Amino acid sequence: MSKKPPKRTKPKSDKKISCRDRALRLLAARNHTAKELSERLASLGYPAQEVEEAINWLSEIGYLNDRLTAELFVDYRNRFRPTGAEGLRFELEQKGVDEETIDCVINSPEKDYELAYQLAKGRLEKMQHLTKARQYQRIGSLLQRRGFGWDITLKVLEALFDSSLDTDLENV
Questions:
Q1: CB neighbours of 153 closer than 8 A, spacing ≥ 6?
Q2: Nearest-angstrom CA–CA distance, 68 and 33
Q3: Where residue 67 falls among pLDDT bands split at 50, 70, 90?
Q4: CA–CA distance, 77 with 75 (Å, rounded to integer)
Q5: What pLDDT is stored for residue 14 in this prediction?
Q6: What is the CATH number of domain 108-172?
Q7: d(CA 23, CA 41)
Q8: Does the pTM exceed 0.85?
Q9: Which CATH class is domain 19-60?
């Protein structure tokens, strides 16, 4: 039988990591907004004054940019988890991005429709075993949960099912 080698542990140092260094390490992992980073540093026990100084310093040298972070976030969402303008707006507000920046980076209605249509079309292929009424219901619910507006949802449903909501409700 072989013995397992002893676990390596990091040597504990008496020196505490500075707020700036911790902020740089957090930004090396992924982009953060100023609000996210300040909340994270505060939760790690750094004093508010140090956190504010670190945030200001990072903004001055260009490492902390809320607009760039918002643009990258929207791009990521569009590629890997399509989300409507309303959903993106909510998520960006939670991250602490200001309204003006959100309005600049959010999807246009045309892009919203394109994303919703592609998402719904892909899901519809997996729902062929369900009735049309059930497919209609599930696609509509999916789009609403993903933050697409009611107007976009209706357009997508009409395009996919070649009908309107009024005529479908009469046939159900």
A1: 116, 140, 143, 144
A2: 9
A3: very high
A4: 5
A5: 42
A6: 1.10.10
A7: 7
A8: no
A9: mainly alpha
